[in-house]
Amino acid sequence: RSYAPGSPERKGLVEALAQMEKELPFEVPCIVNGKEVKTGKLAKQPLPADHAKHLCTYHEADQATVAAAIDGALAAKKGWEALPWNDRAAIFLKAADLVSGKYRYKLMAATMLGQGKNAWQAEIDAAAELSDFFRFGVKYVEELYSQQPVKNAPGAWNRVEYRALEGFVLAVSPFNFTAIGGNLPGTPALVGNTVVWKPSPAATYSNYLVYKILTEAGVPPGVIQFVPGVPEAVVGQAIAHPDFAALHFTGSTFVFKKLWKDIAQNLDSYKSYPRIVGETGGKNFHLVHPSAEIRNAVTQTVRGAFEYQGQKCSALSRLYIASSVWNGGFKEQLLGEVASLKVGPATDFTNFIGPVIGRPAFDKITGYIKKAKDAGGEVLVGGTGDDSKGFFVQPTVILTKDPKSVTMVD
């Protein structure tokens, strides 16, 4: 949807934002076996565009809560995996309808306020991609289950049965996509697994809404356990459990490597061999060939680098370009386009660039800009940040002739 001025969707989203801003901060509990657990150990999810405010206060799971979540997931496993496939599929198709319909604007508002996405980025994430994950998940699992032996020996009939894993799945989701928050626990559950889900601290509220949607759609208590908390504590306890069966992860390369090592060190204590599925960041680039159409290359460079403040695994961070192309119109158009990008809160629909997710991200980005300048890089546009109210960094282009300079390799 376009969310153009005067459109019904713009009206609906503006109303949802206003209502959410009026009601915040929200309280988010852990949810174990379908029941709210309030540990009293509280943490806050700040608004990245106005860090004096917070979207929610959430209860961090303690050791007893994580243990109960694991035990509950294991207890729920037998009934859930025995449920006919069509019944599980129906639940996730209903969830997709709730995401794209009844809760569309509420999910988008939570993603805009809590994660700093503009309306378009929230639309393609919290509304479109999340519902697509659930619908396409059903389609692809149905295709998988239909793969059966094409020939049988005379007098014999062979059939493949796809079974859930032995144990529980740990889902560790990131801040940058509400959709991934729903997909990481949702897909394993779709095929009969039970899941302990630790959401990102910076996306707790939107992920809590996703959990509530899944519950409304019919996911039984215990199938997905919602346990926000300190990452090292929740994840560490889960991967040390003998019944740990799989990790479903999206996040940084550093954290994923550490988790892989920790799992390997625990290998002798597991009842089975855990599956490890992870997606991490990249260092993506554009190589602009002299035959490229300049206007299109500039547009795709700007979008690839600066949509959602570059906080995507697919974000562009390096540009390789011949001097003849650079000086043949590309430089002028690129710098003009970047300089025109409006920066500010996502609630102002004229802003293209919103805040970065929090203090660590702000300090890291501005720190790299300083490192690049200290190493001889030339800041052609941007290069500044303002954290007085929110965590805003101007879109920045740095020119270097050293392919191994800090911003080209880190």
TrEMBL record:
Any one GO cellular component localisation term in the record: mitochondrial matrix
GO biological process: L-proline catabolic process to L-glutamate
Metabolic or biological pathway: Amino-acid degradation; L-proline degradation into L-glutamate; L-glutamate from L-proline: step 2/2
SUPFAM superfamilies: ALDH-like
Domain Aldehyde dehydrogenase: 48-405
PROSITE patterns: ALDEHYDE_DEHYDR_CYS, ALDEHYDE_DEHYDR_GLU
Presence of keyword Repeat: no
Reaction catalysis annotation: L-glutamate 5-semialdehyde + NAD(+) + H2O = L-glutamate + NADH + 2 H(+)
Enzyme nomenclature, EC number: 1.2.1.88
Gene Ontology MF term list: L-glutamate gamma-semialdehyde dehydrogenase activity
Active site: 279
Organism superkingdom: Eukaryota
InterPro entries from the UniProt entry: Ald_DH/histidinol_DH, Ald_DH_C, Ald_DH_CS_CYS, Ald_DH_CS_GLU, Ald_DH_N, Aldehyde_DH_dom, Proline_metab_enzyme
UniProt enzyme class: oxidoreductase
Keyword annotations of the record: NAD, Oxidoreductase
PANTHER family for this protein: DELTA-1-PYRROLINE-5-CARBOXYLATE DEHYDROGENASE 1, ISOFORM A-RELATED, DELTA-1-PYRROLINE-5-CARBOXYLATE DEHYDROGENASE 2, ISOFORM A-RELATED
Family: Belongs to the aldehyde dehydrogenase family.
Identification of the protein by name: L-glutamate gamma-semialdehyde dehydrogenase
UniProt gene name: Q0V515
